[in-house]
Each structure stands twice: as structure tokens, then as C-alpha cells.
């Protein structure tokens, strides 16, 4: 095995945004069964260390490919396409206004302890994210429009952070 191989090749998957989750899980388990450190417990120090490195590499590949946002970022990275995540000035004003409105709604629901409203916002945002991931699949796999895909990934980074904030607010309400 080659440590320089990309995550898709390592797990024997096509380099595409659309990933067969069942196949991904199966390939991960197959690879782990081959390289897991427990299999090398009686081996020499060098083999045990190499096994640990491979197991770590397989875990990293699996975690990256399992998460749609991380997978999209990784595909853009493989294409040497900068997503410009450090520059929020690239974001359209209407998108940033929408983000502010989302955040205000979350903060109002958090302050009022409105668990039901937070759950509603959570479900609404998840639906929005699923639609955006469908769009990313078309942009990356079908159209190969890396510029627009990078824009959508930047937007998804906002959504991902917002979803985490909603989850935190819901956890606070449950305490």
C-alpha cells in the first residue's frame, strides 16, 4: 500500500462526490481488518508501528469521505482548487443577511428556552443542507464546475457551523 494514495483510491472508490455509503462502510471494514494493530500484536515493533499508521490513515480516509462537506472539500483539494474559506468577502450580501437572520432566530429561541423552535430550525436547516448537497453532487460529479462548487462549499461551511450552534442550543435547553 502507498501512503501517498488519495482517500478514494485507498478505499477503492471512484473519485466522486456521490459515494455509496454501504460500499464505503464495507471497504472501510475490509481495510481495517487488514491493517488493525490487533492483528500485529505479536509482530515486531516496526510492523506494529506501520500497522498503526495504516489504521490511522484508513480511519482518516473513512471519516473524510463519510461526511459530505469534508468529502466536497477534499475533492476540491485534490483538484488543487482553493475554496477561499478565509475570505468571507467572497460571500454574496444576500447570503450573509440570510445567515444573520438564521442566527438571530437561533439566539431568540435559545434565550427563550424554546426547544420546539430550535428543533424546527434544526430540521429546516437539515432539509436545506440536503438540497445543497444534491446541488454539490451535480456541480462536482456531472458539471465539474469547481468554481461554483467552491462557492457552495463555502456556504455549506456556514450552514455546518449554524447546525452545530443549533445543536448546542438544543442541548442547553435539555439541561
From TrEMBL:
This protein's encoding gene: hscB
Function: Co-chaperone involved in the maturation of iron-sulfur cluster-containing proteins. Seems to help targeting proteins to be folded toward HscA.
Subunit structure: Interacts with HscA and stimulates its ATPase activity.
InterPro entries xref list: DnaJ_domain (IPR001623), HscB (IPR004640), HscB_C_sf (IPR036386), HscB_oligo_C (IPR009073), J_dom_sf (IPR036869)
Family classification: Belongs to the HscB family.
Keyword list, A-Z: Chaperone
Organism of provenance: Accumulibacter regalis
Protein name in the entry: Co-chaperone protein HscB homolog
Alphabetical list of PROSITE patterns matching this protein: DNAJ_2 (PS50076)
HAMAP family for the chain: HscB (MF_00682)
Superkingdom of the organism of origin: Bacteria
BP terms from Gene Ontology: [2Fe-2S] cluster assembly; protein complex oligomerization; protein folding
Any Pfam family the entry gives: HSCB_C
GO molecular function, one term: protein-folding chaperone binding
CDD domains for this protein: DnaJ (cd06257)
GO cellular component, one term: iron-sulfur cluster transfer complex
Boundaries of every J domain copy: 6-78
UniProt keyword Chaperone, yes or no: yes
Amino acid at each position: 500500500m502507498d501512503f501517498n494514495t488519495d482517500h478514494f483510491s485507498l478505499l477503492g472508490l471512484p473519485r466522486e462526490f456521490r459515494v455509496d455509503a454501504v460500499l464505503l462502510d464495507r471497504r472501510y471494514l475490509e481495510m481495517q481488518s487488514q491493517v488493525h494493530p490487533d492483528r500485529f500484536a505479536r509482530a515486531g515493533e516496526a510492523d506494529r508501528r506501520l500497522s498503526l499508521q495504516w489504521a490511522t490513515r484508513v480511519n482518516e480516509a473513512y471519516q473524510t469521505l463519510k461526511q459530505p462537506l469534508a468529502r466536497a472539500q477534499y475533492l476540491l483539494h485534490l483538484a488543487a482548487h482553493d475554496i477561499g474559506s478565509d475570505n468571507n468577502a467572497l460571500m454574496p450580501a444576500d447570503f450573509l443577511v440570510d445567515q444573520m437572520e438564521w442566527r438571530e432566530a437561533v439566539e431568540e429561541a435559545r434565550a427563550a428556552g424554546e426547544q420546539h423552535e430550535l428543533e424546527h430550525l434544526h430540521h429546516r436547516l437539515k432539509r436545506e443542507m440536503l438540497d445543497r448537497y444534491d446541488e454539490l453532487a451535480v456541480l462536482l460529479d456531472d458539471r465539474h464546475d469547481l468554481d461554483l462548487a467552491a462557492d457552495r462549499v463555502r456556504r455549506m461551511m456556514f450552514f455546518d457551523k449554524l447546525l452545530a450552534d443549533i445543536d448546542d442550543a438544543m442541548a442547553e435547553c435539555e439541561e
